[in-house]
Specification:
Blueprint lengths: L1 E2 L2 E4 L3 H12 L4 E4 L4 H6 L5 E3 H9 L4 H6 L1 E3 L2 E5 L2 E5 L1 H4 L5 E3 L2 H14 L4 E2 L3 E6 L7 E6 L2 E6 L2 E4 L7 H4 L6 E16 L9 E3 L6 E7 L2 E8 L10 H12 L11 E15 L2 E2 L2 E3 L5 E2 L7 H22 L3 H4 L1 H23 L7 H16 L1 H12 L5
Parallel strand pairs: 1-12, 2-3, 2-13, 3-9, 6-15, 13-20
Antiparallel strand pairs: 4-8, 5-8, 6-7, 10-11, 11-12, 14-17, 14-18, 15-16, 16-17, 18-21, 19-20
Helix pairs in contact: 1-6, 1-9, 9-11, 12-13
The chain binds flavin-adenine dinucleotide.
């Protein structure tokens, strides 16, 4: 049996950032990841990072490439009825910006920092199981390199995403979950073509939502609304581009096409579990909550959770107080529910359900006109999008 202070399940953005923040405070951890390093580093996901999360990563010493290569954006556009309306985020939200930098790149930077520090990170770990959660001496067992292992610790951080084992390891009756599955998903492509717009374009269209975003000056990331169970095989590249051209089309603007490097469907879901802790097990990131990606909040929430957790653990190890650890769930959930509402609101405003109710359609259009003509309404969108300080 080996021993550490904090056992972290999952090497996604939450688990890796937690390990880094703890290391900076002199707290030991071991990260256990089910997948290979290659898989984790190639998984295409989020790309919009709030400024406060950029500041967190820079402050923790992994922001050098993010600062150099991240694309700083000051606005987004909402498009409907054949017109594109810019929401000047920075002007409305006290000068704040968002940074477009792929989650894959953040994960690569975090893994590189972990390995450079010689900190324990095990990939291809199998059969992780959590034990003695009701005690002050929790343990994990797992298989790695063909052998069975046991890891004793003070605290377990469940950073293993929505489908992980940490949340289901909590005894029945402890958690209360809230959620919604939406009747649509996003078919996303990554294309080797420079973005056609300098900023993100969110398009509401009779045929369904579309989003034009990017990962770098050479890589476009584009989405079209589809069914949640859509088979990407039914979307040859030509059909994807055709649909994007229609939904994003605008007089005087054209969408450049290029080779499709990756294609996938994401079902849209809202989910929160409360509390985010059970004795010495703390859930963080997608393990505890999911937002539909329309508000670009999932990655940002995950990193906020671990920032709160790292501060609380440092306080506990440093002075013995459990006050911040005891408050972990409540502290995180305030921001989680704000992001849940914002993500639900953006999703509801911009997507067209199949067989849309004409009354709802009129409400959506009215909301879009309001948010693009009222400074107060646009400010509300902007401050949520760039990330609120206090929630
Ligand atoms: C298409 C798409 C677009 C998105 N866009 C945005 C965006 O623009 N902005 C934004 O903020 N968010 C966005 N998100 C959400 C964001 O990607 C997630 O919220 C983020 O990945 C959460 O990080 P995490 O570390 O909590 O979980 P994950 O990234 O899911 O990491 C969990 C890790 O745990 C590992 N694991 C799972 N089970 C086990 C186990 N039993 N044992 C060991 N390891 C295990 C997994 O392999 C994984 O590496 C998007 C998501 C998708 C799918």
């Amino acid at each position: 049996m080996t021993r550490t202070q904090v056992a972290i399940v999952g090497a996604g953005p939450a688990g890796l950032t937690l390990a880094l923040l703890l290391r900076r405070q002199g707290i030991e951890s071991v990260v256990l990841e089910a997948r290979s390093r290659e898989y984790v580093e190639q998984r295409i996901r989020a790309g919009v990072v709030e400024q406060r999360i950029v500041d967190l990563l820079v402050g923790a010493g992994v922001g050098e490439r993010l600062r150099r290569e991240g694309l700083v954006h000051h606005g987004i556009s909402l498009q409907f009825g054949g017109e594109r309306h810019r929401i000047p985020l920075s002007e409305l939200a006290g000068g704040r910006t968002i940074v477009v930098y792929g989650q894959t790149e953040i994960v690569k930077d975090l893994i590189a920092a972990q390995l450079a520090d010689g900190a324990p990170l095990l990939f291809d770990v199998d059969g992780v199981a959590l034990h003695d959660l009701e005690s002050d001496r929790p343990r994990l067992t797992y298989r790695h390199g063909g052998a069975e292992h046991e890891l004793a610790c003070d605290v377990i951080a469940g950073c293993d995403g929505f489908h992980g084992i940490s949340r289901p390891s909590i005894p029945a009756g402890v958690l209360r979950s809230y959620g919604r599955d939406y009747p649509f998903g996003w078919l996303g492509i990554l294309a080797a073509v420079p973005p056609s717009s300098d900023e993100l374009v969110y398009a509401y269209h009779d045929r369904g939502f579309a989003l034009a975003t990017m990962r770098s000056p050479e890589l476009s990331r584009l989405y079209v609304q589809c069914r949640p169970d859509e088979n990407p095989g039914e979307w040859p590249d030509g059909r994807v581009w055709e649909e994007l051209q229609i939904r994003l089309g605008l007089d005087g603007w054209s969408l450049a096409e290029g080779p499709v490097l990756e294609k996938g469907v994401t079902a849209m879901r809202s989910f929160v579990t409360e509390p985010m802790q059970y004795r010495r097990l703390f859930l963080a990131g997608d393990a505890a909550h999911i937002v539909p990606p329309t508000g670009a909040k999932g990655l940002n929430l995950a990193l906020h959770d671990v920032q709160v957790l790292a501060t609380a653990l440092a306080d506990w190890y440093g002075g013995g107080s459990t006050a911040l650890l005891d408050a972990y769930s409540d502290t995180c959930l305030r921001r989680v529910w704000r992001a849940e509402h914002f993500s639900w609101w953006m999703t509801s405003m911009l997507h067209r359900p199949e067989g849309a109710d004409p009354f709802e359609t009129q409400l959506q259009l009215s909301q879009l006109r309001y948010v693009t003509t009222s400074r107060a309404a646009a400010t509300s969108l902007a401050e949520n999008y760039v990330g609120l300080d206090a929630v």
